Amino acid sequence: MAGVFLVLLTAAGCAHKPAESSETARNQKGLTPLQDFFRNPRKSDFELSPDGRYLSYLAPWHHRMNVFIRSVNSASPVRLTDVTDRDIDNSFWKGKRTILFLRDFNGDENFQLFSVDIKTKKVVNLTPFSGVRTELVDDLDEVDDNHVLIGLNKRDREIFDVYRLNIRSGKLDLVAKNPGHISGWMTDHKGRLKLAVQTDGVNNTILVRESENAPFHKLLTTNFRTQVNPLFYTFDNKNVYALSNRGRDKLAVVELNLKSGKEHVIYARHDVDIDNVTFSKKRHVLWDALYTTWKMQRHFFDPVLRRMFVDLKKQIPTAEIGISSYDRNEDKFIVLGWSDVNPGSEYLYDAKTKKLTKLADTAPWIDPAKMSPMEPVEYTTRDGLKIHGYLTVPRGMKAKKLPVVVNPHGGPWARDSWGYNPEVQFLASRGYAVFQMNFRGSTGYGRKFWEASFKQWGRKMQDDITDGVKWLIQQKIADPKRIAIYGGSYGGYATLAGVTFTPHLYACAVDYVGASNLLRFMQTIPPYWKPFLDMMYTEVGNPVKDEALLRAESPVFHVDRIRTPLFVAQGAKDPRVNIDESNEIVAALRKRGVTVEYMVKQNEGHGFQNEENRFDFYTAMEKFLAKYLKPVPPA
Length: 635
Prior knowledge:
This protein is 18% helix and 33% strand. The chain is α+β, with helices and mostly antiparallel strands. Strand 28 and strand 29 form a beta hairpin. The longest helix has 19 residues.
């Protein structure tokens, strides 16, 4: 579906300040401490070196996530980085001796690419350009240990040119200058930049060429509603595998002929979109197709992978299973195991011997026996649309007359899925049922379901949330006098819309980096979103042509309707939802005498990444919700 514009990115993640006295009292009653839900992981994001000799991972150092390595055969770690201002939240191997990672500063999302040598520990900023965003086009893992292809909006903040970066010398060579409308690039398995996607804001054109010295030519053009999303080249480098909904409602796996533009369907489902496809770089076969019903599911193409998963399921029977990394020989794999009540563990799996070795529990302080199951639910909206969602009831409690936190997701073109969610488990541990719903526009349910959200912010999209709340009341799950709404990003907007257009439903509300003025929001987007602006106008509304619509949907213009106590949290450096979105509605409500608590973190962007800020936010939210909903924590 459309690009996700407002997904809230926060890391669950090591406590570094003492719990407050009220929290200590709760601990004495057996409740899991708040900090335990939102601490940085003990260890996470394990990656195998290409030769399979080393493991890299992220772990806290001075309360920030840093890069560590260890030998596969030894548990003795070596720390490679020493950042203290902001977590490193991703890293990957480049060859046998180098690890690369992207990081921004204060949440501005202008990511810079860094390298660190595993022997010397020397860290080098490879793209030290102020105000410039670095995007990885291809790590060239299959062909070259010394170079990567990156996109930089150095020349023009709205578009990205492609450079070949020598990670040893830092030398940048221009590979492709963006003519002005290229929104994406793709290489073949030899690392040659041979495919691009061009957009005019509404129509997308796939461009292809025979070599990097040849000019691009048009293969096919589709309106953005019809998606043909290239994934990777076929193994002979002649065609590409793609996710496409051409001529169908749901995204299917297809092989796209680069001569004729015709598609051959590889795998499709009638109920949900296909999310992704994985493949073996060594054996050159498709591994599996991933899709989500109420849980993530797999369709196996490769019998070798299927047999491996059968064996893994025998060894980790109580967990969902995934693979996050493997060596070039595809002998060793990093395996993830998780559930709705378990943050998960990471394992090293030897495919030859079938030996499975636990590397780390992500959050060993979380006791799954104290967590609450996440159950799938569905209901029908006032206009007959079926909505899927999740209900988490505090462990040991009956789903009757409970205080409920309604939690719409961000995006809005994203979705909630089954699995461990620290926010959900924290709230459930405090006695709240948590209700999440995939309102219209949520991804994974096909084109028709997505298009039903167009220009429906605060309208039918909000009705889907409201109808879900009414369903909870009708089912006598919710105490109608003790319902709160909380969300981040688009969920923050939905929170504000909820207390604006249906204030009678909610006893209190928490808005986390949510937009309040859609006219301004559409005019303050990051510059690299502007190539997609016409598409956003179709999906959300044009601030000129649709001024009346956007004004009607913007909570800040209707503050006279809001009477619900509100807590607002905002990052000062947020590039997606400008801080003025929060400043304005807080000032307007306080002027009217409405209770508003306001938290601003100066060193954060679109969501709070630093754990001390997360602690502050969730501590304040816990007190705020308890004041108005008066929960009874489970025994």
